[in-house]
Amino acid sequence: MSDPDVVALLAQHRTIGGAPREELEWLAAHGYRQHYDPGKQVWRKGDPIEALYVLLSGYLAIWVDRGLGPRKVDEWRGGDVTGLLPYSRMSAAPGDTIMGEPTDVFVVDRVHFPELTRECPTITAALVHVMLDRARTFKSSELIDEKMVTLGRMSAGLAHELNNPASAIARSAKLLTETLETAESTSRAIGAARLTQAQFEAIDRVRIGCNAALPSALAPIERADREEALTAWLEAHGANPDAAASLLDTGTTIEALDTLASAVQGPDLDTAIRWIAIGCSLRTLASDIEKAAARVHDLVGAIKRSTFMDRRQMPEAIDLPQGLRDSVALLLHKARKKSIGVTIKIDETLPHVRAIGSDLNQVWTNLIDNAIDAAPEAGHVEISARRELQFVVVRVVDDGPGILPADRERIFDPFFTTKPVGQGTGLGLDTTRRLIQRNEGDIDVVSQPGRTEFRVSLPVASETTA
Asked: For 208-219, what is each residue's pLDDT tens digit?
């Protein structure tokens, strides 16, 4: 027998109140009212959910931790429904559900669901709509959380990669300031020497060699031999041997110095060489700053392109080679820590695919990051891309131990991970698959000990959209 007071409350309910009275009476006869005080935890993560909760008044929220700390994913107030819903496949709580204020609910146990779907079609339809909306909310939340995890990995890589060029710029800038002071005094000394035009021409010929780098990098032994030869020459001609360090990596030859020594002698030769050497040092420092700044520029460009931070999140013609290279650049620091070799084999004539660029770059980051995790110390990861019929196929291969047969069917399941506790959310491959499917692609995996290959297939963009 239904409680008239409960029926009246259900009739005023925002979600199911529009159902026929006989359905509300049936519902009232098959459930019970329950009161919760503020702070009451109804479900902990993993707890079984066995009933439908129709909120009559109050407030509760669910907090989910996907590796970034607890975050409120959804909330419900009087007029909402939550808990287990008809046709829902959810069996356990994905997070902690806590009452935020005094809350009254009407509870219907799952044992009544088969009869509920037969006797209450209007209520059932309303609950199915709620279930679909809730699924979209949770899926969206999972995508956001996994994107934040991916951004965190890229940010860590970016910070690490930026540190070296930033330090090089700071170091070279400081040395440049100190060297400029020496350059000023050396310039005054060369001016006071009152050299002839012929002597200045001899100096300029050495400076031309100084401005040119060595044709190829020297091996350590060759470098030591060259430094020894330069030092010996300077000492033999009464010049300061410290200049050898500035001349070492330039195109200056012993023959050019001999020609200079035939034109300039004595103390003037030492002054001329110091002036040449300080000029070499200034150019080297300026070049080092330029190279480091270019590296910073390239890395910032990579993260900007990878996140599509200045672009709308909509499908467009995507250049896959650039996105793959950017993802590798942002994860190289991690590969270096394990001495892992990373090879990129990309057909630069690849046709475009039509996709959401940030989606694909998140896919590449996830797959390459996982491959680096899976590869052994001093192992190898290979990224390749080529056209196969009407698809562009990207392969990410590692030489790790492989995926256990028992795990192979589950690796794309939400929250499944083979990584140690605290090192994986279990959402990476699930999110990767959903992002690929959202862009009309497909992903599969082939694995055996020593070789695991993730293969992503994306349809080629038509010429009218590319």
From this structure: 877 766 656 677
